[in-house]
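Worked example
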Amino acid sequence: MDVFHLIIDTSMLRRLHFQHPDFNRLLQQSQMGKLKIYIPRIVLEEERTAQLEKHLLMIEEIRTRYAKLQRGMQGLLVQGLAEAHIELWSALDVEQNSRATFSHFVALNKIEVIEISKDQAANAWDRYFKVEPPFNPKEEREARRKDIPDSWILEAGIEVKARNGQHCALVGDNKLTNAFEKEGLRVYQDVQTLLDDIEQATAIAPIQRPIVEEAPVPLDQLRSLEFKDLDVIILGLIETLDIPHKEALFSALEAAGFKRDIAEHEARTLVLSGRLKDADTHFIPTSRALARQAAATDTVTNVLLRIMG
């Protein structure tokens, strides 16, 4: 089963944040071993600092609204009451804690953060100066600078191509989409299409019911006719021929029309069953009475006639 290696860019992570239901669906695929999620460090920091900025703005808004409650007619309503205290987090505490919580989240969910490397930096700047994707040569140089972060994200994604499996990206930016596709990665702009492809690629074929067919032979005929009475014949010939040399025994059986390999196999079976003893050059019956009984059968007599004839 090929694992899907998925790169997530800034615009898509902004849309599908860590608490989004679709992100949880991706994590479920990751837990089943079908998907490996990668987030470039620059993308993770973009998301963390954007959420941090939003959080600090909300804190400032709360403080501003609280101050208004203590002025004018709103302040008159609470005049004479004990002063209310609202204790909110400091910007430093929130900033430090955001680093810890983001690190814990990616580690807990086995998301691989692609750190910024010297090679990424060199390649990203090389793309900028050569005006290669994701940079648009039709834009002014100053306007192209806004795409420098995307160039770093692209280089981080290219590193993942060395890993076995299918390589893809969740991207919400057209220029970065084209750049990833040019590098051979499949680009998705919605989670459902990605999940459908994962399901199709990793689905286990349903177990086929075995085809019922008629047995080619009855159970009492599992051994072919070539083995019929061969054990009795070998035991009887050894007695009749007065414990012959192995070569003489098998040559006689071949002369009677028996296949040598089948005769040798049956002789070894008689040894394993304790009816014969293997004395290197000869087979010796462990019971002469049983051997004489075999020699007296019509089956052995008929074989002797074929040998002599």
In short: The two ends are 67 Å apart (CA to CA). The mean pLDDT is 88. The longest helix spans residues 41-69.
